[in-house]
Amino acid sequence: MNFKKIEICKSCGRPEYWGDMRWLSGRCVCRDCYRADYESQTGKIYVWDDLDGKRPTREEYEEQEENKDA
Fold it and tell me: End-to-end alpha-carbon separation of the chain, Å?
């Protein structure tokens, strides 16, 4: 499986690497949505660094999709 494949988060619509998506209440979401949910539910800042790192851009996603058929 290609963990660097870019998918679109079903929750917010932003691109995210497949290998960095998180399961949350039965749905697969990006790191930003996961962090926001944690902070909303607990009222505390998410202090761990596992959600840090580069996010893919919409342009990278579009390029991937264009090259998929090539």
Answer: 19
Given CA atoms 44, 45, 51, 57 in this order, what sign does their dihedral have?
A: positive
pLDDT tens track for 33-42:
999 999 999 9
- Give φ, ψ of 2 to 5 degrees: -90, 100
Q: Which residue has the tokens 């596992």?
A: 50
Contact 11, 18 (CB under 8 A): no
Summarize pLDDT for 12-26 with one digit per residue, the tens. Answer: 999 999 999 999 999
Strand pairing partners for 15?
A: 8
Q: What pTM was computed for the model?
A: 0.89
